[in-house]
Specification:
Its main location: membrane. Keywords: Cell membrane, Electron transport, Heme, Iron, Membrane, Metal-binding, Transmembrane, Transmembrane helix, Transport. InterPro entries: Cyt-d_oxidase_su2. Strands 1-2 form a two-stranded antiparallel sheet. By secondary structure, it is an all-alpha fold. The mean pLDDT is 91. The protein has helices at residues 3-30, 39-47, 53-70, 72-81, 83-102, 109-139, 153-156, 159-183, 186-220, 226-248, 252-274, 298-325, 332-342; strands at residues 277-279, 289-290.
């Protein structure tokens, strides 16, 4: 296989990993206004991702670095054209990270509520804008002959892209609720399950509309991977429905696992809908960036491939070990005991 095509799939897998892992972080952050009736409950929710949220975000750094090295033309066009949306994502991620670290520094309820609000904003905004950005890559954006984006932020906020953003927000919200159900006990666990069922049913309708629209776009673009696009979309839909059923039966482990497959197959649906383009130009397809004309040299890709073969398994092993160490539930009694010792 040509290395340019190989790295298209490697970068895709890295983004799948990012949306699966940081995705439930976003969902947990979105849940704060709806779950956690008191401070102990809110600490329960935040502590579910406390040991892992920053590690999950490193998948975005790795994916971005690989995108820069493997496809410099794509990276340049994407980051110059989508710079305002990507800047907002970056600021939101910084806001969320700072809030996790600072909310417990003072006992003031107003102080903590302020940072909780920033956690919610820092979770909803990136999910929405990532959905908008990826949907625009599928649909196509205006590029000139130098592969430079000629639109604006309003160009990106079109109906299909906005539906993509809303869909991603809902899917990740449900994904996060499953994780909370898996990692907590008591009232938070029960409330997360009930809310996941309600939001899940809404998500089925919205996601179905978005996936059907995506398939129609891929068909209109004569996407060479159209059969795989349809298969991935169908698997995402089945996984979403199964996750809701497992959640309703209080099988939180299976609900979260099928939720992982929902996110993974949904991202793969969009990724395969782009192929062989990495940045499709509309209404002038001749200005598009493809897997081949946007890639680095064969020598660069060869070095990257050897580095990936050596280091990627190590990263996966280390992250797997981290999740194993922090595999236990975050119980309400443990937080109450810790609070009693402090006071």
């Amino acid at each position: 296989m040509d290395l340019a095509y190989l790295w298209f799939w490697i970068v895709g897998v890295l983004f799948v990993g990012y949306f699966v892992l940081d995705g439930f972080d976003f969902g947990v952050g979105m849940s704060l206004p709806f779950l956690g009736k008191d401070e102990v409950g809110r600490r329960q929710i935040i502590n579910t991702i406390g040991p892992v949220w920053d590690f999950n975000e490193t998948w975005l750094i790795v994916a971005g670095a690989c995108l820069f090295a493997a496809y410099p033309e794509w990276y340049a066009s994407l980051f110059s054209g989508f710079y305002l949306a990507l800047l907002l994502i970056l600021l939101a991620l910084i806001l969320r990270g700072v809030s996790f670290e600072y909310r417990h520094q003072r006992e003031s309820l107003r102080w903590k509520k302020g940072f909780d609000t920033m956690i919610v904003i820092g979770s909803v905004l990136p999910a929405l804008l990532w959905g908008v950005a990826v949907a625009n890559l599928v649909q196509g954006v205006p590029l000139d002959s130098n592969h430079e984006f000629t639109g604006s932020l309003l160009t990106l906020l079109n109906p299909y892209a906005l539906l993509g953003g809303i869909t991603l927000v809902l899917v990740l919200f449900v994904h996060g609720l499953y994780f909370i159900g898996l990692k907590t006990d008591g009232q938070v666990h029960d409330d997360a399950r009930k809310l996941a069922t309600k939001v899940g049913l809404i998500t089925v309708v919205v996601a179905a509309a978005f996936l059907i629209w995506t398939i129609l776009l891929a068909a209109s673009h004569a996407a060479p991977l159209l059969p795989l696009v349809i298969a991935a979309a169908a698997l995402a839909a089945v996984a979403l429905i199964l996750s809701i059923l497992f959640n309703a039966r209080d099988r939180e482990g299976w609900a979260f696992t099928t939720g992982v497959f929902t996110v993974a197959f949904a991202v793969l649906t969009l990724w395969m809908s782009m192929f062989p383009f990495v940045m499709r130009s509309e209404p002038f397809p001749e200005n598009s960036l493809t897997v081949t004309n946007a890639s680095s040299t064969e020598y660069t890709l060869t070095i990257m491939t050897w580095a990936a073969v050596i280091f990627l398994p190590l990263v996966l092993l280390y992250q797997g070990w981290t999740y194993w160490v922090f595999r236990k539930r975050v119980t309400r009694s443990r937080i109450e005991k810790a609070e009693a010792l402090v006071h």
